[in-house]
Design brief:
It is a single chain. Helix content is 11%, strand content 14%. With 280 residues, it is α/β, with parallel strands linked by helices. The strands form 3 sheets. Strands 2-3-4-1-6-8 form a 6-stranded mixed beta sheet, with no helix packed on it. It has a 3-stranded parallel beta sheet with strand order 9-10-11, with no helix packed on it. A hairpin with a 4-residue loop joins β3 and β4. It starts with a helix and ends with a strand.
Length: 280
């Protein structure tokens, strides 16, 4: 009886070992690699032209000429109720950029899935001129959420924004393809400082009226060595600083209506090389 029990025990042990061995990989079998996590796919987006966006911003839904005081990115989509979203992206985009007016904060928010919620910049259209032109109620504009590397024109981008006091994101603006800055800040009469330190003007030929009528502008910041004075003809830079009556360069060169063209678009070097720019 004892011998039989011993045999049964041994048989059961062998069966257990066989089961365990079957469930475990053999020595020479490779251990399966973990399945890689697929890389996130960025959906393409193309914005409408600057002129098209200007007209949308000024309509009865976004109110950039009457009630809205701020324009900025949102990390969350538009609320499902209480607002009317307006599409700022062009047809054919794989994801949309929509904007809406928030009555409580008097802010125009814009949102694009995969971009504003992921810290990615939305590429502006090649022709972005007039984008905020005559958005006369806006006091703050944040363009830090846009990639302007494909834009070739900034003509009148902020012209007539008479209430504007702050433009966030100018210091990171990529202007390598820009050919025109004509009237970019024209009649922005409440701006006191403008930062053009990131501006690449190597392809630009038109600067006419760029800062015209910025009557409260005191300082234009630029990177060391900036000198646009010889980058174009005097006619293409005519009236660049006209009526910037509060403007003063970094070496205390004060505005003079006789010197309101592009010849003073450089870091102020004092009496030997006067200019209206201040080194940042």
């Amino acid at each position: 009886m004892k011998t039989q029990s011993k045999h049964l025990f041994l048989l059961g042990l062998l069966a257990f070992v066989a089961i365990v061995a079957t469930g475990c990989p053999h020595k020479n079998e490779p251990i399966p690699e973990p399945t890689p996590t697929p890389a996130p796919v960025t959906l393409s987006i193309t914005m409408k032209t600057g002129e098209d966006i200007r007209q949308l911003l000024g309509n009865a839904y976004l109110k950039a000429r009457s009630e809205a005081t701020s324009f900025k990115a949102s990390t969350t989509p538009a609320p499902k109720t209480g607002v009317i979203p307006v599409t700022l992206s062009a047809d054919g985009s794989e994801t949309e950029c929509v904007a809406w007016f928030d009555n409580n904060s008097k802010t125009i928010f814009y949102y694009a899935k995969g971009y504003t919620d992921a810290g990615k910049k939305i590429p502006l259209a090649v022709n972005s001129k007039n984008m905020f032109k005559l958005c006369s109620s806006l006091k703050e504009i944040d363009i830090s959420g846009f990639d302007a590397s494909k834009a070739n024109s900034y003509t009148s981008m902020f012209e007539g924004c008479t209430a504007l006091t702050t433009i966030s994101g100018l210091d990171t603006l990529n202007t390598t393809r820009a050919t025109s800055f004509q009237g970019m800040f024209k009649n922005c009469s409440n701006l006191t400082t403008i930062d053009v330190s990131s501006f690449d003007t190597s392809k630009a030929t038109i600067f006419t009226d760029m800062f015209y009528g910025c009557t409260n502008l005191t300082t234009i910041y630029a990177k060391a060595g900036t000198d646009w004075s010889s980058s174009t003809t005097s006619m293409a830079g005519e009236g660049m600083f006209l009526n910037c009556t509060s403007l003063k360069g970094g070496a205390n060169t004060v505005y003079d209506s006789k010197n309101a063209n592009i010849s003073y678009a450089r870091i102020d070097g004092g009496t030997s090389a006067p200019g209206y720019f201040t080194e940042e």
